[in-house]
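FORM 7B: Structural annotation worksheet

SECTION A. Query
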Amino acid sequence: MSSTADFQQKSANPLQREPSLTFELSPVLYAAAWVFIVLFHAACGTFLVCVAMTYWYLTSETMPFYVSIWSLKGIKNYRFYGVVFGIVGAMLGLRVIDLIVMSIQSRQLRLRSETSVIRTLMSNPIISRRLSRAGNNEAKTSQSAGQRIASLVARSLSQMWHRVFSRQGFFGVESAHFSTVYALQELLVASSQTYQSYRASNLLPRSELNVIMVALLVTNCWTTAGIQMFLRKSPELGRIFTLTYDAMIGFGMVTVVPLLIFISYIQAFDIQNKYFKNPNFMYDPVPFVTMVLENRLMFAAGLLDFTTKLIPHLSIMLSLVTISGLLGRGDIKVVPGNGGPSMQSMVVQFKVSSSNIGKPTDTDTQASTAISQILNQ
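SECTION B. Predicted structure
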């Protein structure tokens, strides 16, 4: 009994490690957070896809004539910029689909999968030994050499991904290097925002938009340290507030302000016929010069300008993914589903079946088979 109790205590410790930096919310708040994160992903992804389509639209037919008015390089690299923005927007769209599909499969709102629980179970020596023996026997009988090599490569990539991007990985939310990685991320984002604010002060004629950009930049630089200091006793809450705030500040600077500038031109331009609705627009010096300066600010003037425009979008995406990993539901119950036992129920079965450590039992075999089926899905 003492060995059984010790084994149960050791096997329970890894499961208790996962929620160490998880901020549990009530069902109502968790649902609100899920909707907020999904809509945030959708808004950022839609904006980036529209930006990509705009870059490609400006390279078609007579549009390069207008581009040459504000860009000394013309449409050089415009298609490349559009492809990159489109890829990032598509990644955000896939993230939205993943959250929705994952919630439908689980029959409840979810922000992250249970792969970390699977990896925790796999780290247990008895389960790993059972799966290793079963895998070796199956490989000898049914797998070819090519299949074994592919399986080995896939397992190596999975382990590498786990070491880098898992919760305890280098870029994970529970990483010992999280503060260093986050500081470098903030340095890149603040530098990009500073460069864009500087260009706005030179090119943007609207003083109110300049004030908004500078205010967002200053607020972002000072409040990050303040939030970390006031919430230092609750690291998970501090990280959630900091990342959410940074994402909203970045969204305001790289999405809201450009939209406020560009919407007026969309309304004044005939997209189908490719000319301004007002024929005198190009001959009025004030709106013409304003258009040249503002479009020079909105569209990338070179690789450096393009990079500083892209970095805040990548930071927003990483922040939303990290926030999803820090939030948890506070009313988790052990309820077996129709397709098989849940991970919580398998953990309970494993604890009950570990009374005989030296010899495998029928329940151990059933648990190993169930985990193998989940890993193969």
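SECTION C. Observations
Confidence is low (pLDDT under 50) at residues 1-19, 115-124, 333-359. The chain has one domain: 23-125+152-329.

SECTION D. Sign-off
Analyst initials: ____
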